[in-house]
Amino acid sequence: MLQSAPSRRRVNHQRAKTGSGVFRGAGGCHRLGRRRAGGACRCRHRRRVREILGRDQPGGSRHHVNDIVHTRIRFDEAYRRLQQGRPYAPQKTGQVRLSNRTANGVEHNFALNVPDTYDPARRYQVRVQLHGGVMNRIDNRPVGAGTIGSLDGVEQIYIVPWSWNASPWWSDDQIFNLRAIVDSAKRLYNIDENRVVVSGVSDGGTGAYYVAMRETTPFAGFLPLNGFWMVLASAELRVDGPLYPNNMRNKPFFIVNGGRDPLYPTDAVDPHIEHYRKGGVSLVYEPQPDAGHNTQWWPSVKDDFESFVRDHPRHPLPDTLTWETSNPAAFNRAHWLVIDKLGPQKGDAAALADLNEVPISPRPDFGVQSIGGRVVRVSPGSNADTIGFKVGDALVRLNGKTVPMFVDVADALSSVEPRSRVELVVSRNNQPVELSGVYDPPIVSYPPRKLFDRPEPSGRVDLTRAGNTVHASTRGVAAFTLLLSPDQFDFGKPVKAIANGKTVFDRKVEKDLHTLLKWAAADNDRTMLFGAEIRIDLTR
Prior knowledge:
Shape: globular
Number of helices: 12
Distance between the termini: 41 Å
Mean pLDDT: 89
Radius of gyration: 29 Å
Strand content: 25-35%
Structural class: alpha+beta
Largest sheet: 7 strands, mixed
Low-confidence stretches: 4-41
CATH superfamily of the largest domain: Alpha/Beta hydrolase fold, catalytic domain
C-alpha cells in the first residue's frame, strides 16, 4: 500500500484527473442515448477499461478485469487504448516522500526526486538508486537527504528507497518493495517503461546484482558501483535465494570498481568480470586504478554512465530469454516467459552452460595444503612427501630466496619449471631443515568451482524466437507459459513451440481480451501487452 510519508494516508493518485479521460476518443464519449443491443453503453466499457490504468494500486486494477470483459469491448480497441495509456496530470515536483507497505506488513520509505521542469506529456528516464551501509542501519527510518547527491546525471526521475539490516537489498522483501514502488511511480508520473535502471554504491551496488538475478522484467539495465556479487555468497548475510548468475544474461551491466578499494579491489573483481563476459553477460567495465571505496571518479565516469543508459533501452519483448528459479510462486518470470512448475523430466536438455560454475584450469598438484607458508596437510606418496615435507613445516627459502610467510607453498612453487631440482629450507620445530629434490607434480584436472550454494532444486528455461517459432531448452521444469504479444507474434499464422527438440505446440491462437487485461493490470506497461497465453506441460 502506497502512503504519503508525513501523514501515512493513502496517496490519492489523482484518480479524478488521471481517470476521467484515459480512453476518450477523438470524438469524445457519446451520451447515454447510444446503446448497444444488449443495453450496455459504449461509454461504460471505455470507463471500465480506463480503470485498469487509473487505479492507484495494481490489485485494484485486476479486480476490474472480469467486469471489463463482460462489456464486450473489442480486443483491438482495448489494445489500442492500453498502448495509449493514461493521460498524466501535473504532479508535485522536487522531492516527494512516500512509503510502501509490503504484504508481510513491513513499511518501506522511499523518495521520488522529480525535475522541477517535469512535463506530464513527456516520458521520463528513471534511475533507482540503492544506498550503501545497509547492515549499519537498524530500522526503516530514512537516513540522509533522500536525494541523488553528487551522483546526479541527465534530467530524469530518481527513486531513492531505504534499506536496513532486517530488510537488506538482498531480501525477498526488498524485491517486492521495488516492484511496488516502481509500479506506483508509473501511476503518478509519465515514466518511460523502457528506461528504468537500477544502480547503487557499495552495498547498493551489490544489491543491484541481486536484483538482476531475481527480478529482471521491469528494468533496462543494472549499474553497480563499488559493489561485488560474491558478497552475496557469504553465509553471514543470510541472503534470500538461491541465486542464479545465469539470469544476469538478460540485461546489460555498467560496472565500476576501484583498484585501491580495500573491500572489493579490481584484482579480486577482474577474474569474475572476465568469467561473466565469456559466459554471455553484456557488460561495460570501467575500473578506476587509483580509486578507493568512494565515488570521487564520478565526474570522469558520468558521461559514460549516462551514455550507457541512453544506448541500452529495455527490449520489452526480447527474442532471447533465460530464467532459472527455485520458487515458481514468486520469482518465476522474465518478460514473456513464466515458469509454472518444477520437476525433472526425461527430455531435459543434456547440458546448459551455467555461469554459477567457474572452470578451474588443470594445475600441478604438489600434494601439500598450507595456510600461508605453514603446511597443514601432506598427501602420502605425493611429490611433497617424496621431497620430505611434514605437517607443521613452514617454508622459509626456495632456491636461495626468502619466501614471505603469507605466501602459500603451492604459489611459491608455481614459478618453478617442472622436472627441475629445488633446494628448500623449512622451519620445523623452530629449527631450519634443508630439503631438496625434483619438482615434478602431476597435472590434475579439477571440477568447476561453484559461486553460490544451491540447496533447493531449481528449474531453468532458455528461449529463442524466430518469427512465430519458439525454441526452448529446459532443465528441471514441468510446465511453463509463453505470453504472446501481437507486437511480437503474427496471430494470423500458427505458433510453434519446440521444447528440447520436441514440438509441444503448433496451431493458431486467438486474441483473448481477458489475457490482455489481466497482464496489463499486473504490468502497468504500455509497451509490453499480451494477447494470448500458451501453457506448455512437459509431463505429457
